[in-house]
């Protein structure tokens, strides 16, 4: 399958500029994981997913996506805006009083592109499995995609859902783990080790794909192609995507300190110097 990698990289660069500007403007938010997942979400929305014009909550006749680690809302909102779900100018309202762009996505604001409130970690996979089962019942052959933090997998509800999905052969589901090894309190290995995630998912009878460089656009596109080719074969699919926390901004990279901290004026200027403005700032 042919991919326009240059176009996708340009979108990802602009998304990263949006992220640091949004978080700086309100002095609140989660830039580290957002920057790390920019390439994946751009690849997903502008290449891998089959999307219809407009937005409806049912998602019938199209692929759907659920963001489980909702604190990385800056990247989600930016990607949705660039994908045409709402005007990019609305990014300037991030985390403001009465804004539709709250710190964690909500559904009562009726923001196009958001199908579930994701403030509490560990619930997104259960919701996505329900939608995937619903698609099967409706004879809808489109797919359900999810994104999860690796620290989020310390939540037990995930493992009940993982067990359910394999037992019920929910093979129209592609769950991706942002495997950056960092969470708010430090490295996941020190907070509560996840052990060998690949072995764990395989023990629950999932098909597992791994990407060593989860910020390489070409590798992301290739693994999404492979994952889609494996759907409908009796097993749910997990992508372990080894991203870099804060990717694209040198002083944020690899540090849990930037999980939920806003840059000051000087740090913003430094970040923007490193991120090319490709599509115009909002």
Automatic annotation (TrEMBL):
PANTHER family under this entry?
A: TRANSKETOLASE N-TERMINAL SECTION-RELATED
Lineage, top-rank taxon, reads: Bacteria
Residue stretches spanning the membrane: none
What is this protein's record name?
Answer: Transketolase
Q: Which UniProt keywords apply?
A: Thiamine pyrophosphate
| InterPro entries with a match to the protein in the record | THDP-binding, Transketolase_N
Q: Which family does it belong to?
A: Belongs to the transketolase family.
Residues forming the Transketolase N-terminal domain are 10-271
Required cofactor names: thiamine diphosphate
ATP-binding in keyword set: no
Keyword Isomerase carried by entry? no
């Amino acid at each position: 399958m042919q991919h326009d990698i240059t176009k996708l990289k340009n979108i990802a660069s602009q998304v990263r500029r949006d992220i640091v500007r949004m978080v700086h403007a309100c002095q609140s938010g989660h830039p580290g994981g957002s920057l790390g997942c920019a390439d994946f979400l751009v690849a997903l929305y502008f290449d891998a997913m089959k999307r219809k014009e407009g937005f409806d909550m049912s998602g019938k006749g199209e692929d759907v996506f659920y963001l489980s680690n909702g604190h990385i809302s800056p990247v989600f909102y930016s990607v949705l805006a660039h994908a045409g779900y709402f005007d990019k100018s609305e990014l300037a309202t991030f985390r403001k009083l009465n804004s539709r762009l709250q710190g964690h996505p909500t559904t009562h604001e009726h923001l196009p592109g958001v199908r579930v409130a994701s403030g509490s970690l560990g619930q997104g996979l259960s919701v996505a499995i329900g939608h995937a089962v619903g698609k099967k019942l409706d004879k809808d052959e489109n797919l359900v995609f999810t994104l999860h933090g690796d620290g989020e997998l310390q939540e037990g509800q995930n493992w009940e859902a993982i067990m359910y999905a394999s037992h019920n052969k929910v093979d129209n589901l592609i769950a991706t783990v942002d495997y950056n090894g960092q969470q708010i309190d430090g490295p996941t290995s020190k907070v509560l080790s996840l052990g060998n995630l690949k072995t764990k998912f395989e023990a629950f009878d999932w098909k597992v794909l791994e990407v060593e460089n989860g910020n390489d656009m070409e590798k992301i596109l290739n693994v999404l192609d492979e994952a889609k080719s494996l759907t409908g074969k009796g097993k749910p699919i997990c992508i372990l995507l080894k991203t870099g926390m804060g990717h694209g901004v040198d002083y944020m990279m690899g540090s849990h300190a930037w999980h939920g901290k806003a840059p000051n004026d000087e740090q913003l200027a430094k970040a923007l110097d490193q991120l090319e403005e490709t599509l115009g700032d909002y």
